[in-house]
Amino acid sequence: MRMGIHLPHAGRYATARGIVDVAVAAEAVGYGSVWLFDHLFTPSHLDSTYPFAAAGTYPLDPADPYFDPVALMGVLAGVTDRIEFGTRVLIATYRTPVVLAKELATIDALAGGRMVLGVGAGWMREEFDAVGVPFERRHARLREHVSVMRAAWSDGVSAHDGEFYEHVEAGFHPSPPRGSIPILLGGYGDMALRRVAEWADGWAAVVRNEETIKNPHVAVSPDALAERLDKLRAACAEVGRPYEDLRIVAAASPRDDPGVLRAYADLGVHDCDLMVWGDAARVIDELRRFADTVGTEL
Fold first, then answer.
1. pLDDT digits (tens, 9 = 90+) for 177-211
2. Could you say which of 3.30.420.40, 3.20.20.30, 3.30.1370.100, 3.30.710.10 is the CATH number of the domain covering 2-293?
3. Where are the domains of the chain?
4. 10 Å Cβ neighbour count for 209?
5. Which of 95, 234, 284, 291 has the fewest beta carbons under 10 Å from its own?
């Protein structure tokens, strides 16, 4: 299991210099990846319920910075040479697929094929309203959105006439260096895992239970993760998809029990996104301490 670092691009301590410094430090120390979340804004009054906290309260304040992940990946392509970078997860349908496909392919081409795109259906209705995208049927919209981007990347010249999107036949070069960009799908329920099995390249693993809602900053137990992975295996078997084809990306804290992280590796998790809440100096201290005491690969 390769260890990754979540970049400090959201919250009161987020700064442009700090994000770059953490990414460069992570690459220098030997981490395999760096990761980003996605939100467009933080409403002053939020009616939507945050699904990962007991009280449903979103942890960010409207005054907190939240750097855009797509723009940031363009920066990461230029300031790093080896490390993968990706989203866990991007709410892709906030952006039209034609524009997003072009932006991501351009960044990935400049990076030499180091992007991993985690996508999710989203939960904050206020953001959907702000960009004029219906909140209803967002899962079906996301699936078609991804199919438009994949056709643009892999075919080079494509057309689309679907339920949610359409475009004339057109060329979309440059294509990503690997022919496409790996797409992980987020989510935690049985239906989400079924969707991973049906059309994603991997799972941006989320386990939502009483344990994680009470303390979202502690790694979920290996038993809880194993139960979800068993469900994913079963979904793959139902649709005739080799489970081994999927890339599994989990999350934890560098302060979690290393035994838990080693159990993740034993379960077949490919990457673990280590999250540290604080300024860039603290994140760099933590990533170096973890590398020295545990390692960057388990």
1. 999 999 999 999 999 999 999 999 999 998 876 66
2. 3.20.20.30
3. 2-293
4. 13
5. 234
